[in-house]
Write a structure and sequence with these properties.
The protein contains 2 helices and 6 strands. The protein is α+β, with helices and mostly antiparallel strands. The chain has a domain of 52 residues. The strands form 2 sheets. Strands 2-3-1-6 form a 4-stranded antiparallel sheet, covered by helices on one side. A two-stranded antiparallel sheet has the order 4-5. The radius of gyration is 18 Å and the shape is globular. The model has no long low-confidence stretch (mean pLDDT 89).
Length: 97
Amino acid sequence: MSKKIYVGNLPFSASEDEIRTMFGEFGTVESVALITDRDTGRPRGFGFVEMENGADEAIQALHQKDMDGRSLNVNEARPRGDRGGGGGGGGGGRGGW
C-alpha cells in the first residue's frame, strides 16, 4: 500500500523532477504534486509525494534537510478532514416575525 507524504517549506524554484529524484533514493515514487496558487499559478512552497515503498525512510532522512537554504518539513500527509474555521449558520436575514 502506498503512503502519501507532505513536503513543506520547499524553495519556490523546486521542480517535480528534483523532488522525484530526492525521494527516489529511498524507494519507488508513484507521484509528485507541487501545489500552485489557484489565481497566479505560482508555487506555494509545498507539495505531496506518494511512495509505494521507502516512505518512512524518506521521511526520516529528509525531514529538516536543507534544500536551497530552506529546511524541509517532511511528514506523513494527513487527510484533509474538517479544516475548521469560518462559516456556517449565522443569521443576518430578516426573520419572519
